[in-house]
Amino acid sequence: MNILVVGGGGREHVIAETIARSNQNPNMFAVMAKKNPGIAELCRDYLLISETDVEKVVDYAKSKNIDIAVIGPEAPLAVSLADALEDAGINTVSPKRAAAQIEFDKAWARNFMKKYDIGGCPVFGVFTKKDDMDAFIEKLGNVAVKPAGLTGGKGVKVMGDQLPDIESAKAYAGSLLEGDSVVIEENLVGEEFTLQAFVDGKSLAFAPTVQDHKRAFEGDLGPNTGGMGSYTNAGALLPFLVLDDVEQAKQIMKDTVRALYEETGVLYKGTLYGQFMLTKDGPKVIEFNARFGDPEAMNVLPLLETDYVDVISAIVNGTLADIDVKFSEKATVCKYAVPAGYPDDPTKDSEVITGDMGNALLFYSSVYEKEGKVYTTGSRAVAVVGIADSIAEAETIAQNALDNIEGDLYSRRDIGTAAVIQKRIDHMKEIRGY
Ligand code: GLY
Predict the structure, then answer these.
(1) Is residue 73 in contact with ligand 1, taking CB distance under 6 Å?
(2) Is the CB–ligand 1 distance for residue 74 below 6 Å?
(3) pLDDT attached to residue 154
(4) Domain 2-94 sits in CATH 2.60.120.10
(5) For the domain with range 191-421, which CATH number is right: 1.10.10.60, 3.30.420.40, 3.30.499.10, 3.30.470.20?
(6) Which of 47, 111, 161, 335 is the most buried (most CB within 10 A)?
(7) What is the pLDDT of residue 153?
(8) Which atom of ligand 1 is nearest to the CA of 296?
(9) CA-to-CA distance for 357 and 366, rounded, in angstroms?
(10) What pLDDT sits at residue 151?
(11) CA-to-CA distance for 253 and 245, rounded, in angstroms?
(12) pLDDT tens digits, residue range 248-271?
């Protein structure tokens, strides 16, 4: 079987590594903007072009007789790469544009949730006029401000964090109005968690819950990033969740997949990513993404016990309900090393030297290889993942590996530590009132 991976980041490296573990020994090919050495090593061949150059990606896929394509990032989905590959007769394990807009158009996503009465939808409004928007901000009093389009998770600002008061919320929302609509939502208070699922259009197979860390600096300080690191707990349930929280989140995602078909006529195939805020009233949807999370993919895919090629074949064939998708019951801690100054003023083109990784997994992200050396591009550079029976052990494995990576880099040492986990548990106890 010939499989194409589109994308060159940490998420795509773990996707490629999971395909490479298959007992079916597929031939792997990749399209990526810059040479990710981890992906390149696993592939029979690769092409270095923009992942949004639809024509070139399709031509390459045809020339390699690709049976199944897996698209990692969101940008190619927004320019209809999945539609173009399917039109060319290539099975694609990523949603077509009509279904993927649940990620790249936040205004559409909220209106869709409201129309189909999908659970977990916060109070929201979509605005193109400043006066109406200001009045809504005043009315809600405590808001999150979201640009409608794709921002890599960095355009959302919330009061109490990046926006100190109502006036700054109005000013920021107003600055986004040029050329796009703006979504204003009630500011959700609680603990965030991620739930990812394989989807064949009808059935969903859920991965363990993950918690990401968006803020750049220890103690959840600093600007928002794509995610500095993440963890799962042994047994699939994060320590601050109870089973019913996850059951509610699963139901929301199942209802979403069914409603997406009703609304668009397109079967959602690929991975659906639900980012939830666990509030005092249960899980609320912060956003949906039409792909695996980065870093969250690096937590769950190494735990996948079922052959991934069987999983993606079942997605293509619409037979996901017929296979048993299993994840091992281990804890994982993933930590990113990012360039100094990331995300606002990152250093670029500086060498990354990886030493002894011990038992940790290493995934290359926004780096490129030149003459046998690895260099940063300015975004998240390399990730390490510890896997063990407890979060504490997984954290030690990840941190030891991180300590053996040299370069003009920094990371968050606090991710997965007992103190931070306890803070999450205490926060949720306080919110629930017990
Ligand atoms: N970790 C957040 C995301 O992938 O969107």
Answers:
(1) no
(2) no
(3) 55
(4) no
(5) 3.30.470.20
(6) 335
(7) 54
(8) 1
(9) 19
(10) 65
(11) 13
(12) 999 999 999 999 999 999 999 999
Task: Quote the ligand 1 centre to 143 CA distance (angstroms).
Answer: 21
**The CATH fold of domain 123-186:** Dna Ligase; domain 1 (3.30.1490)
Q: Whose CA is nearest to atom 5 of ligand 1?
A: 293
Q: In this structure, are residues 4 and 68 in contact, taking their beta carbons and an 8 Å threshold? A: yes
- Out of 151, 192, 194, give the residue to mutate to test ligand 1, the one with the largest number of ligand atoms within 8 Å of its CB: 194
pLDDT averaged over 10-residue windows placed end to end, the chain, 434 residues: 98 98 97 96 98 98 98 97 98 98 94 98 96 96 89 76 93 87 95 98 98 96 93 95 97 98 98 98 97 98 98 98 98 98 95 97 96 95 98 98 97 97 97 88
Pocket probe for ligand 1: among 15, 150, 296, 300, the residue whose CB has the most ligand atoms within 8 Å is 296
For 368, the enclosing helix (H) or strand (E) is strand 367-370
- Domain extents in the chain: 2-94, 123-186, 191-421
Residue whose C-alpha is closest to residue 383's, from 314, 270, 302, 282? 302
153 lines ligand 1 (CB under 6 A): yes
